[in-house]
Design brief:
CATH architecture: 2-Layer Sandwich
Distance between the termini: 37 Å
CATH class: Alpha Beta
Shape: globular
Helix content: 25-40%
CATH superfamily: Beta Polymerase, domain 2
Strand content: 15-25%
Strand order of the largest sheet: 5-4-3-6
């Protein structure tokens, strides 16, 4: 979402660095308040480093198989500086996506940037 400068009425899009710092803080809050969360990261333009004006943030949350979808109210995505979408996977769903070796598997393996957790145990079964 554009930020209004305090010295002018012009709006500017937040820097990728600010977005990634905010996303990492969001991920750490979510992981600290939801023990079943195993990993949190992002894919897409912010993970690749080619985000620009209008880019949204694509977040990935991997949680334990028997865990319900995390309650995001404690770590509200609306507080992030750009619009965000959240993809939720259980560990078995995540492993299945990687095993299928489709486009999403390539995206997750090649470009994902994880802020919290380690997906190597899940991806090792690939």
């Amino acid at each position: 979402m554009p930020i209004t400068s305090s010295r002018s009425s012009l709006k500017r899009w937040p820097s990728p660095e600010l977005v990634l710092r905010s996303a990492e803080a969001w991920a750490r809050r979510l992981a600290s308040t939801t023990p079943t969360v195993i990993a949190v990261g992002c894919i897409g333009s912010y993970a690749r480093g080619d985000a620009g004006v209008g880019s949204d943030l694509d977040l990935v949350v991997v949680r334990a198989d028997d865990a319900p979808v995390p309650n995001l109210l404690g770590a509200d995505v609306d507080a992030l500086p750009v619009p965000a979408d959240v993809l939720h996977y259980t560990t078995s769903q995540f492993a299945r996506v990687l095993a299928e070796d489709g486009r999403m598997a390539r995206v997750l393996l090649d470009e994902a940037r994880f802020f919290v957790g380690d997906i190597s145990a899940v991806s090792a079964g690939r």
